[in-house]
Amino acid sequence: MLPFILKRVFQSFLVLVVTGAIAFSMFTFVGDPIDNMLGQERTMEDVERLRTQLGLDRPVPVQYFKFLNEAVRGNFGVSYRQGREVSEIIMERAPATLELAALSAIFAVVMGIALGVFTAIRRDGFAANFIMSASLIGVSLPTFLIGILLIYLFSVELGWLPSFGRGEVTKIGGWTTGFLTESGLKALILPAITLGLYQMTLIMRLVRSEMLEVLRQDYIRFARARGLSNRVINYRHALKNTMVPVITVIGLQLGAIIAFAIITETVFQWPGLGLLFINAIQFVDIPVMAAYLMMISVMFVVINLLVDILYAFIDPRLRVSAK
Amino acid sequence: MTEPVLSIRNLTVEIPTRHGLFKPVQNVSYDIHPGEIRGVVGESGAGKSMTGNAVIGLLDDPARIASGEIWLKGRRIDNLGAEEKRAIRGREIGMIFQDPLTSLNPLFTIGEQLVETIQLHLKVSAAEAKERALALLDRVSIPDPKTRFDQYPHQFSGGMRQRVVIALALCSEPSVIVADEPTTALDVSIQAQVLDLIKELASETQVGVILVTHDMGVIADTTEQVTVMYSGEVVESGPTDKVLSAPEHEYTKSLISAVPRPQVKLHRFPQVSYGGRETTFKIEDLARNWHKPEPSKSGKLVEVKGITKKFLEKSAILPSQRTYFTAVDDVSFDIKDGEVFGLVGESGSGKSTVARMIGTLLPVDGGQIHFDGDDVTEMSKVEMANYRKQIQMIFQDPFSSLNPRMKVESIVAEPLMHHKILPPDQISGRVHELLDRVGLTRAAAAKYPHEFSGGQRQRISIARALATQPRFLICDEPTSALDVSIQAQILNILKDLQEHLGLTMLFISHDLPVVRQMCDRVGVMKQGQLIEVQDTETLFANPEQDYTAQLLDLMPRLAQLSS
Amino acid sequence: MTDQPLSAQSEPQSVTPSRLRRALDSDLYYAFKRSPVAMVSAAVALLLILSAVFAPLIATTNPFDPTSLNLMNGFTPPMAQNAFTGETFLMGTDDQGRDVFSTILYGMRISLFVGFAAVLFAVVLGIFLGLLAGYFGGWIDSFIMRTADVQLTFPSILVAMLIFGIAKGITPIEHRDQMAIWVLILAIGLSDWVQFARVVRGATLVEKNKDYVSAARLIGRRPSAIMVRHILPNILSPVLVIATISLALAIIAEATLSFLGVGAPPTQPSLGTLIRIGQGYLFSGEWWILFFPACTLLALALSVNMLGDWLRDVLNPRLK
Known about the structure:
The complex is a heterotrimer of chains A (323), B (563) and C (320).
Chain A lengths: L1 H28 L3 H5 L6 H11 L5 H13 L13 H36 L4 H15 L2 H15 L12 E3 L2 E3 L4 H34 L2 H8 L4 H39 L4 H10 L3 H29 L1 H4 L4
Antiparallel strand pairs in A: 1-2
Chain B lengths: L5 E12 L2 E13 L4 E5 L6 H8 L8 E9 L2 E2 L5 H7 L4 E4 L3 H4 L6 H12 L4 H14 L5 H4 L9 H13 L5 E5 L7 H18 L2 E6 L2 H7 L2 E6 L2 E7 H6 L4 H9 L24 H6 L11 E15 L8 E14 L3 E5 L6 H8 L7 E6 L2 E2 L5 H10 E4 L13 H11 L5 H14 L16 H13 L5 E5 L7 H18 L2 E6 L2 H7 L2 E6 L2 E7 H6 L4 H9 L9
Parallel strand pairs in B: 3-8, 3-9, 6-7, 7-8, 13-18, 13-19, 16-17, 17-18
Antiparallel strand pairs in B: 1-2, 1-4, 4-5, 9-10, 11-12, 11-14, 14-15, 19-20
Chain C lengths: L5 H5 L4 H11 L1 H7 L2 H18 L1 H4 L41 H37 L1 H16 L2 H15 L5 H33 L2 H9 L3 H12 L1 H24 L11 H12 L5 H28 L5
């Protein structure tokens, strides 16, 4: 098991090196931030002053070393657009996205697994067929449309829930949370459902198809031949075997939630990292893009690593090293 | 005689399909008495497994029992509800499947699976259940049950897993066990042990056993009663020695006669003529157009000199940490012109690896292979193309050896086109001729492989192999995936080829009786090493090595059969 | 390769009708005829695709032609007479007086073009790399699959955005709008090749160990011929299933990017751009500007998804 985890750690390291390289190339070769920061009316002095200030006048290797050095310390320089420290902006925005993502993830995983198991076991039932058909609409409906739909229904027509923003937030140290106030919690509901719905559908469909696959296996047939009840076969044998491949994908989906937050945050004007990133792309604000990329890849890598370790615990074929 | 513990009365199973009602089991009746082993034998598709599934109430949708009755200890069970059937499964009727590798849940320990089953059927405490599980493991001769109890299925070998499966089937002392091809996936030596175990258990615990198999040898060695099935129906039933020595039905006769005899060498394999499945093979026509191969320079067409093959077992970044598994270890032999050389051994002994190295499908890690004096491992591109033209191969699995997306015509034409043996306008004619010669119609050319049966596919493979008029033919278990009657036809074709065309052959098989009929000389492989090479007659009469003697001993004898 | 394709040359001329009969007799067609869901979704998808292709013939106005626009026609509700000009529009007009029905037809053209082109790009790249990785193994396999793994760590929508952002930085401002469509195709296609490569690699690993491949190698056929002639035809059915589902995903991805303002520019609006425009007027009562493009997008994605779902069930490859 140890070599397996070491291998994964090495791979994760590789992912970070690659994203680091991409982030740096973006810094170095993409766009001219001067164009973006100063409008049409600019003097040569302005341009030169800004160049020196941003360190763009130095040779590429020096810039690269500086970038690596600073990145490790969480320092990504100054936003071209806002003129503030990128790390400061990110720290300010992160709680909003993380709270939203965590809530959606719980919603997606719990509902996804429950519905997936249900539709697999009651394969030919009316309810299962209905859920499956609905899920197809779920994957065909783009996230932003779901968001707009929910806003229209619950904010505009019914007026129950807010249509944008985080509501009232409480500050605890460097963290701002919406969990402690009524308006903060209310504001979370619609974005969390919007963000989690698509992932939930994916997880549900995956759990269902894996479980059906497992139920076709010989050992399930043999379990039936031993006279085990359907309950034991479904929830003890089949479910455990189903979870082995599903866990990896769920890990990827959790990472995806953070990325998909970009869409939800745009629709709900949620003051998180996603909104920051999409604005950065529109204005080619490279430091923010690079920092977001690095931060999100660290998050993905950590999630995937945890999933792999969990995986090794579930599957004895990995735990006990091969004879 | 005692009351039967299980009786099947006029059972018919039907499956609705797109093309109408299909009845894989028709009007089948037989009884099982306590402590008795009843063999149910027949070729694939005869409905023997389907009958077993109907007995334990596990027919796959949409198959269903159309008519007939199944009685267990005086109680009718075919018309019970799902929940009542489940209560009988495992409790009264145990089941053993063919493949022990997939029968156990890989994520639960052996102990967990045993205890779970015991506690389901017998109301005992966890400690008592464990006690009983350990006793069962001991009963099926698993060494060190206490350690094994906490291990996972992947830590067991195939034979050991099948023992665990048997222990699971025995958990609640059932009155009947349905064993569906329980030894087909196992090696000969393991097979004998597992069958012995089943025999012992039957006589000791008085459990009745339905043993479904396609193997006449297993029937002869293990069963007391036998039921012969052919396309869904019972054609003959009775005490095993009586049915085998004096079969009454034509099909049984032909089936028995098609089994290769280990005792004597016959010129040709007796073919099953039942059901009009025999097709003619026009070897004389083929021989007329065949340019007889020139004799090799030394009289030895193929010389294998100390070849070795290693497979990476555990990969690592540092070469020193990698571990290798030696599949073929310093093997040397030679094959004379026009000779059929056999290689036998259990699975994993490396015999197929040798064949693949000679066929250039695997690179050689050490040693040399000489073909008519030239070293195959050091050939230039041109020489290699020339070598490939002279060798051909027939593979084991007729379902994977033909590209399913190519028409038969393209399949047979491919070697001709590639080697540019004929101008393009003559290829089609040649292909039709080849198909004709192996007993297929010209219409076959325009069809796809899935439209043919296993035996016909193997004929197509032979036609492809003959297209380039090779000097040397490698046959890698060419009939082990076929029914015994089809096997006889294919083996006869190969014999004819060798006789009339002077083909030299390497014949790989795990089936000793077949090897005895086919080969002039035989090499025995064990764990990658060639331990003995002898003339066939000498080997079968006086084996030098203990291992060979042991293999010969395990051959099903079919002693009751007259040859 | 000097060999001619074998089949082309050895097929008798009478093959065409029998091939059609074979297709009509196939299990796929049989299953299709028995599935109302498949037939309806195929009909809807076909209708939408055809109306996009023939948009210039069907549309009442050309929304990209500024001379045909009349600002006075702005915000006309569907099937209602405009107070100033007296014109009526089936699905109303948008803020600039463009006929919504026509903009949807033209928008669908862009959505479908981007979708098809991106999937085609991903399929070709994925098959090529997947075949190489699966057939040759070794370091080629490691390199391709590790790259795929790294990319798979990131959700495709994020990859597409990144590529879009980088491309936007590289292209000069004056070409950005023109390049936008091609950048979209590149971004979505590049973000999508991994799953094709993985499936093709997996299938190739299975197929290359089958004996028909051994038989071809024994004859001495080259790896390229074996991959293209022998293996490729046998692994196309899972590719077909994924390609269908990918098409729906690509259409949605394009719409999402355009909605976020990082896709098709307002001068060449796709369905996503139209929804972005419509969103601003939803809460002030002009619902039709958003409603009709949204419905079209849903119908398109849903029908293609249902076809893909049905195909997967019928062909039943072991897919995730």
